[in-house]
Design brief:
With 160 residues, the chain is α/β, with parallel strands linked by helices. 42% of the residues lie in helices and 18% in strands. The chain has a five-stranded parallel beta sheet, sandwiched between helices. The structure holds adenosine-5'-diphosphate (ADP).
């Protein structure tokens, strides 16, 4: 039987409980799941890429079939290089749909052998984004329940 490798790409600045919800679902469905941190030149990141990777490794330790990696450049090229068959993306609300659909179709045009699979998180996380977490963090607001505890601690250490 063919083993299915899926890639879950994103910025993960920082990893949230919404991301973890998707990772848990993906780890159940696919044989292997690679959480791939995009190395891009964001204007105002909260955490460096190595910091994000370190936190992701720590919080994904319970899943033996989950790996954390870093990639740059075209996602489909990275997926080809990893021999992945699936790209995993999360859809929180209708507002995510248009952008995600456009990306999925463009990726399919570039690499028809790779399928994008969308998953919905638990509704508890449907309003949660890393961008909001960064804003709350910078304003010193409460993050409990939105991010894993180690991320909460790292944020507290960074902003105080
Ligand atoms: P964000 O969109 O929160 O800034 P990323 O760029 O790291 O985060 O997102 C990576 C992937 O994770 C995207 O497919 C995004 O839709 C998905 N995602 C982000 N937050 C959630 C969430 N709360 N629930 C489900 N999926 C999510």
């Amino acid at each position: 039987m063919k083993l299915v490798l899926a890639i879950y790409p994103g910025s993960f600045d920082p990893v949230t409980n919404g991301h973890l919800d998707l990772i848990e679902r993906g780890a159940k469905l696919f044989d292997r799941l690679v959480v791939a941190v995009l190395q891009n030149l964001e204007k105002d990141p909260l955490f460096t890429v190595p910091e994000r990777v370190e936190m992701l490794r720590e919080v994904t330790r319970p899943w033996a079939n989950v790996e954390v990696d870093v990639f740059g450049g075209l996602l489909v090229e990275y997926a080809r290089h990893r021999n992945a068959q699936v790209l995993l993306r999360g859809i929180r609300a209708i507002s995510d749909y248009e952008y995600e659909l456009q990306m999925a179709l463009m990726n399919r045009k570039m690499e028809p052998r790779i399928e994008t699979v969308f998953m919905m998180p638990s509704e508890t996380y449907s309003y949660l984004s890393s961008r909001l977490v960064r804003e709350i963090a910078r304003l010193g607001g409460p993050l409990h329940g939105l991010v894993p505890q180690i991320v909460e601690e790292r944020i507290r250490a960074k902003v105080t």
